[in-house]
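dude i think i finally got it to work??
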Amino acid sequence: MHWSSKLPTIAVLLALGASRAAAQEHGRVALDLGYPPAFAVLWRVSDAIAVRPDFTFSYNGGGQGATGWSLVPGVSALASIHPSGSLTPYAGARLAGFWIKGGTGPEQWLAGPVVGARYAIERHFGVSAETGIGYTRFRFAFGGSGAIIPIDRWSLTPTGRVSALLYF
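look at this
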């Protein structure tokens, strides 16, 4: 995976550009820029529930294997646990996955619980961090000379992310 040094610079510039305001209720929608690289929209459905659709992306390159970008869609459902001022702890579940139409390509799913917290630094800017356990299942079927050979693996892996939040 290749990490661009431009992402932290952009995050710092956006943080410095966010307007300063007194402590007020932050917006219901936030742009969520995370690491590992992800682009998400955090939508607070109510004071206690939030939904976060996202796309995680990575570049697979180098070595003798195939190179290219992967883009994996996902969604998280998050429930607030005793918010206090600007700090909002939460727990929830995440589901992500991709597939290739036709059944002869890779198929990967990740599902699992997450816990974390959001902190609103200013009216239009905040940060978040979370951790969890993911159940990952990878299936791959390739066909050659008329036969389809399936590969099926699963694992439990730790997950986590940190994010900059830009509230609207």
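The first strand starts at residue 29 and ends at 35.
im so relieved honestly
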